[in-house]
Structure to design on (62 residues):
């Protein structure tokens, strides 16, 4: 598996997990963190990883 496809796969998976957390955990109470905010952060990180993978694909790096 090339580095570009690995970044894309990790980014999309992280984004989707963050989206699920953000959308469906509004009523869940956790003592330390708010799961909706964790979901937003995970969506941002997933977007950055996906953009990095797309950059690698566009540049032709492995």
């Amino acid at each position: 598996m090339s580095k570009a496809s690995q970044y894309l796969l990790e980014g999309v998976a992280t984004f989707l997990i963050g989206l699920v957390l953000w959308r469906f955990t509004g009523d869940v109470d956790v003592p330390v963190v708010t799961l909706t905010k964790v979901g937003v952060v995970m969506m941002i990180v997933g977007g950055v990883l996906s953009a990095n993978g797309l950059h690698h694909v566009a540049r032709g790096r492995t």
About this structure: The chain is about 75% helix and 0% strand. Residues 35-59 form the longest helix (25 residues). The chain has a mean pLDDT of 91. The two ends are 9 Å apart (CA to CA).
